[in-house]
Amino acid sequence: MEKKQMIYNKLLNLVKEENVKVDEPLKDHLYTKLGGRADFFITPTSYEEIQNVVKLSNEDEIPFTLLGNGSNLIIKDGGIRGIVINLKHLNSIDADEEMVTAQSGARIIDASRFALEKQLAGLEFACGIPGTVGGALYMNAGAYGGEIKDVLDHAYVVDKEGRLVKRMASELDLDYRTSNIPDRGDIVVEACFRLTPGTREEIKEIMDDLTFKRESKQPLEYPSCGSVFKRPPGYFAGKLIQDSNLQGTNIGGAEVSTKHAGFIVNKDNASTTDYISLIEHVQKTVKEKFGVDLEREVRIIGEDKE
């Protein structure tokens, strides 16, 4: 029996058939609307299913990739081999007094809105971050002076051996747009945020203000991967790009946004190669003009197209 068919059959023993897709176009799951196909695209509905898929991946040496909602990610045109797992069905959010618990597949925006309804303050900064809760922990997402490490109490993860493990926030090495989650090989399945009581009016006022700032400054009218570069010490990436006269520069269908220089948008049916080439051009130009190395915030994964 062909290896791919064997893997498919094993996956059907672990996950419902409707949640196992073969040769799934990943562009349908990314904000950039770019990227090749996944050999197997799995959307589990329980922590146990995740654990079982991880164990299968280990036992049969099948490459394994976790995909959130694709808001800060570029996947190459050749796609991803092996298993891609997406936790979109694990998206519940609940509260117990001052603790908000959100599953990994929930959007961090929705966790912020849920906290508002419960009159709990602390997650306002996340009201415009498009990623999932799991993705927010993965990169210690932040905006407008707040970040995940300010409010995270603990998380539950499936480790690389397939065990369900509790990790305190202090164990995750949360720092500027980084954590040790990828190094450990953990899959975040649940996050618990410790918030503080507030009034709905005050919390909503902050969220409305941040939403206005985001919508007025960011190029939300085009597909993009969000903010492309981390903030270099002592500088702002967008200002460096703007001062390098790069706004409006394009390679193929990818363009440095004229609205916010820190964004690269899919203006006209760009390929992933267009996107990556433009990122590298921006890095090279800023380095030559200002001597500053721009480090990518966006992740690039997958294989080149043959």
Protein architecture, described:
Its EC number is 1.3.1.98. 28% of the residues lie in helices and 26% in strands. The protein folds into three domains: 3-86, Uridine Diphospho-n-acetylenolpyruvylglucosamine Reductase, domain 2 (2-Layer Sandwich), CATH 3.30.43; 93-203, Uridine Diphospho-n-acetylenolpyruvylglucosamine Reductase, domain 3, CATH 3.30.465; 219-301, Alpha-Beta Complex (Uridine Diphospho-n-acetylenolpyruvylglucosamine Reductase, domain 1), CATH 3.90.78.10. The chain has eight helices and 19 strands. It is of the alpha+beta class. The strands form six sheets. The protein has a five-stranded antiparallel sheet.
What percent of the residues sit in helical stretches (DSSP H or I)?
A: 25-40%
Overall 3D shape: globular
Look up the CATH topology of the largest domain.
Answer: Uridine Diphospho-n-acetylenolpyruvylglucosamine Reductase, domain 3
> Which series of helices and strands comes N to C?
HEEHEEEEEHEHEEEEHEEHEHEEEHE
Structural class by SSE content: alpha+beta
Tell me the Rg in angstroms.
Answer: 20 Å
The largest β sheet comes out as: 5 strands, antiparallel
CATH class category label of the largest domain: Alpha Beta
Spatial order of strands in the largest sheet: 6-7-13-11-12
| Mean pLDDT metric | 94
Taking the alpha carbons of the first and last residues, their distance comes to 26 Å
Counting DSSP H or I runs of 4 or more residues, the number of helices is 8
The total count of strands amounts to 19
The percent range for strand residues is: 25-35%
Active site: 177, 227, 297
EC number: 1.3.1.98
InterPro entries: FAD-bd_PCMH, FAD-bd_PCMH-like_sf, FAD-bd_PCMH_sub1, FAD-bd_PCMH_sub2, MurB, MurB_C, MurB_C_sf, Oxid_FAD_bind_N
Domain FAD-binding PCMH-type: 34-198
